[in-house]
Amino acid sequence: MSTVTGVTGVTVRAPAKVNLQLFVGPLRDDGYHDLVNVFQSVSVYDEVTVSPAERLRVTVHGDDGIGTRAVPRDRTNLAAEAVAILAARTGRPPNVEISIRKRIPVAGGMAGGSADAAAALVACDELWQTGLGDRELGDLGARLGSDVPFMLMGGTAVGYGRGELLEPLAGPERFHWVFVRAETGLSTAEVYQAHSRSRASAGGGAALPPGPTTGLTHALVRGDARRLGAELKNDLHPTVFKLRPELEHLLGLGQEVAAAGAVVSGTGPTCAFLASSEEHADIMRRHLSQITGSERVLVAHGPVPGIERVPP
Ligand code: C5P
Question: Which residues make beta-bridge pairs with 16?
Answer without folding.
Answer: 42
